[in-house]
Amino acid sequence: MFAAFDIAFDREMYARCYSPNWYQMFRTLELPEHRWSEADQKWLEHFAEERIELIEGARELVAELASQQIDVGIVTSGTRSRIVREIEEHGLAPHIRECVCGSDVVEKKPHPEALLLCLDRLGVSAAESVFIGDSPEDIAMAQAAGVFSIAIPGLYPNREALLAARPDAVAERLPDVLRHISFI
Known about the structure:
Blueprint: H1 11-17, H2 22-28, H3 36-47, H4 58-67, E1 73-75, H5 80-89, E2 98-100, H6 113-122, E3 130-133, H7 136-145, E4 148-151, H8 159-164, E5 169-170
Parallel strand pairs: 1-2, 3-4, 4-5
């Protein structure tokens, strides 16, 4: 996608500037703002061809939370069409009560707008909620919303930044999340 804008982009550059907020990446890579919507469209075209695999333990964690009558919501920067497709393809739809996508809000992560909207739709308070995230922006969003944050290092090259965001807890694997959730 970046090649279309004559921007050199390799694994090293990815590790240096990764953010789930693509506008932050565009800014870091000095892509002119007037080209961001074009870049968004190109990214969506490329990403639409990808099939996302679940992180190990995701299906089991979501099923366990749902079996405990705990509402599960998703807050993501992704597009609704892709996220809904992936939820359905992975058989998670029966367990997900709410999903707030990037296009549902004006402000992007780390702003808490999306998480607060999800909590409102679920009818739960920040004090009785937990947010599991794999980026520093996720942790900052949870903190800004007053929600207990659990960091789960993922496949992105942001482990140091994720830990530097000072989450309330860190789980190395998704099955480890349950020991950090006191209301189960």
